[in-house]
């Protein structure tokens, strides 16, 4: 595997390997402090980001490596009309690995086909976000001990929420997973996700507009932000943005060990009054994301740490 464009580029065994490495990094950080000495990561972010870019950069620094960064489309030659292919070839002359975020679906794939170094998809339009899934998967693993037989509720913008698409793909390889899709009519999970992923893998799923309907059944509740930047008009966004707001009263019937996840940034979807609930895991996801990105950098750079 040269690039990580889609979470399914990783086999289940490879994903297990990343989890194992991330857990070892958590237990023995000193062992990894110089692992990527002399290596350079280029972060090419053509869309806003706080967590993903900084966690890739922190990950590389914690491995002893260096970082080169383009943090907006306007500050790079993309603004002059350079193609993704040419940018990828150029950056291959400076760095050892690329993490790319782009508003166009498929852009990191094109970069991966043209770069001579590994390319990681750090989010492409409303399509995929495999490294957020790595953060989510490590969080589920650490909090729930595994993946089989979980009932997972996804709530909010299931149409444009790329983290939802990637996590459902990742979960499709485990057994007994039930998926509850909670969204307004207009923001339902795309048909291709239902047909090609849920139905094809025989995954049981239900759709509802009511956040409370299946609350008592959930092992994981994955909240998402309405993706304002993917809307064609502001009116629709304003109408839908506060469709779901998780407050303490809404989780009264939830299991005591249900975990509440969110890829962040949150806008209004989770009240800050939930933050002190032991079930709230969204800041744990942030930290887990850094460890999984460290594990991923080691894998793609083919660095072995003994
Ligand atoms: C997500 C994204 O960029 O898709 N953020 C992130 O990387 N943690 C979720 C979002 O922006 O809503």
Give a brief rundown of this model.
It contains nine helices and nine strands. With 306 residues, the protein is an alpha/beta fold.
Q: Which compounds are bound in this model?
A: N-carbamoyl-L-aspartate
> What is the spatial order of strands in the main beta sheet?
7-6-5-8-9
Largest sheet: 5 strands, parallel
Sequence of secondary-structure elements: HEHEHEHEHEHEHEEHEH
- What is the gyration radius calculated from CA atoms? 19 Å
Into which percent range does the helicity of residues fall?
25-40%
- Between the first and last Cα atoms, what is the distance in angstroms? 21 Å
In total, how many beta strands?
A: 9
Shape: globular
* Residue-averaged pLDDT: 96
Number of helices: 9
Q: Could you tell me the strand content as a percent range?
A: 5-15%
Q: Spans of 5+ residues with little confidence (pLDDT < 50)? A: none
Structural class from helices and strands?
Answer: alpha/beta
What does this structure look like?
With 306 residues, the protein is α/β, with parallel strands linked by helices. Helices cover 34% and strands 15% of the residues. The chain contains nine helices and nine strands. The strands form two sheets. The chain has a five-stranded parallel sheet with strand order 7-6-5-8-9, with helices on one face. Strands 2-1-3-4 form a four-stranded parallel sheet, with helices on both faces. The structure holds N-carbamoyl-L-aspartate (NCD). N-carbamoyl-L-aspartate binds at residues 51-52, 123, 129, 132, 162-163, 225, 263-265. Residues 51-52, 123, 129, 132, 162-163, 225, 263-265 line the site of N-carbamoyl-L-aspartate.
